[in-house]
Amino acid sequence: MKIRQIKQVFGGVVTGAAFIVCSQTSLAQDGKDWQDSLLVKMDRQGKVYDDIALRIGALAEIGHQEVQSSALLQKHLKQKGFSIAAGVAGMPTAFVASYGSGKPVIGIVAEFDALPGLSQTTDPVRTVNSHNSAGHACGHHLLGTGAIEAAVAVKDWLKKSGHKGTIRVYGAPAEEGGGGKVYLAREGHLDDVDALLNWHPWDQNASNSLSTLSNYNGKFRFYGTPSHAAAAPEKGRSALDGVEAMNHMVNMMREHLSEKTRVHYVITAGGDAPNVVPKFAEVYYYARHPDPAEVKRTWAWIKNAAEGAALGTGTRVESEILNAVYPVLPNDVMSRLVHRNLTRVGGVSYTAEETKFANKVMESYALGPVSLKRAEQIQDLETGDRVLSASSDVGDLSWIAPTNWLSTATWVPGTSAHSWQAVAAGNMSIGLKGMRVASKVMALSAIELFQTPTLVAAAKAEMEKRRGPGFTYKALLGDRKPPLDYRKK
């Protein structure tokens, strides 16, 4: 064992944290035999999980509407001996699946929501799937399926070895803006978890100890007075004017926001006909920053702009926070553990047919092709102060239980998330291969956590140092109920 000193920046404050980091040599007493046996068994059972992933990929159900996708995952876990608590935290598609008893409790996160408007076939050129308007452009069909594959492998090991402990799967809906994990965290479903394993589809293989952006998002709804836009405009008050005035003021705000603040929006409703003064208009906003306190201040300013716009246009405005998440709290102990197992499992190699597919996909890249070798390579472990320019409700969980950040090459190198290219690769063999890498890495890592109490203790000690003294988790979105209809028109 050795002591490593690190520094982490949150909200402009640099804090030093000394903690125990496990050495690069596995502490498991059973040697590599159990690892080899586990990987062989997972390969034999792989087609079962490939089929589940492709079924969920075809369903492409959007946030809080993942009824069939959630049911598929739950059914498989139940068949494998897990107890299921369904519809938890006020979300019909959320679930918690458990096997075993006692400590440690090791959790694995499963997501399964798709994105609207990103339908795509498995063709390497833009081709909309006529059967569904949504698509798994962030690979959550792979994410959820890979999670349960890992959990079942760990369950089989627990049963065979007689080892004490609990493996748990958190079925978390609506990651894309709905904040499903926040409600699981707020209702206490992770309070007894000792360590949490998490992964995400990507275009490369990496285990990093990095942070993300805190995020507030919500909708502003303006109500006006309809009238004939030509014959009686003086009798009308345009709700769309309210939205446009608000957007103009927010865009002027940008000059005075801190450098790391991000604000973006879309107008989701703006009227039905040009000759009718719009009686209703709606705009959907996101605000992001590494520090949750800074995002909260920015959101308050945005709300003031909305109220001023309503006053100036003679309209009325209502606002609703849909989601608010913490940044991911990095954990070097967890990331080093996962990186070691990722290096053991290795990356993704392409067949001739997959290479042809990948080369065709890369023709669509604005910045040109990227080396396909990236799918095979394992990126160096990155620790430090870098913040990813994205947000995830995994952030909330990471302040409650030590959490890793793993990505594997489920997409053609160079592919960005939330793209048709991600949907295409994620629903064919390239995506499935990357998912299998992730499931193996998480299974190996979970078992090592069960075998090594000092590793769990070190991860928890690091989390507590990074959180700072006196931290108590409190959801940023307050006591609002889950936005079950946020994706409905």
TrEMBL record:
<dbReference type="InterPro" id="IPR011650">
    <property type="entry name" value="Peptidase_M20_dimer"/>
</dbReference>
<dbReference type="InterPro" id="IPR017439">
    <property type="entry name" value="Amidohydrolase"/>
</dbReference>
<dbReference type="GO" id="GO:0005737">
    <property type="term" value="C:cytoplasm"/>
</dbReference>
<dbReference type="InterPro" id="IPR052030">
    <property type="entry name" value="Peptidase_M20/M20A_hydrolases"/>
</dbReference>
<protein>
    <submittedName>
        <fullName>Amidohydrolase</fullName>
    </submittedName>
</protein>
<keyword id="KW-0378">Hydrolase</keyword>
<dbReference type="GO" id="GO:0071713">
    <property type="term" value="F:para-aminobenzoyl-glutamate hydrolase activity"/>
</dbReference>
<dbReference type="InterPro" id="IPR017145">
    <property type="entry name" value="Aminobenzoyl-glu_utiliz_pB"/>
</dbReference>
<dbReference type="Pfam" id="PF07687">
    <property type="entry name" value="M20_dimer"/>
</dbReference>
<feature type="domain" description="Peptidase M20 dimerisation">
    <location>
        <begin position="218"/>
        <end position="308"/>
    </location>
</feature>
<dbReference type="GO" id="GO:0016805">
    <property type="term" value="F:dipeptidase activity"/>
</dbReference>
<dbReference type="Pfam" id="PF01546">
    <property type="entry name" value="Peptidase_M20"/>
</dbReference>
<dbReference type="GO" id="GO:0046657">
    <property type="term" value="P:folic acid catabolic process"/>
</dbReference>
<dbReference type="InterPro" id="IPR002933">
    <property type="entry name" value="Peptidase_M20"/>
</dbReference>
<dbReference type="InterPro" id="IPR036264">
    <property type="entry name" value="Bact_exopeptidase_dim_dom"/>
</dbReference>
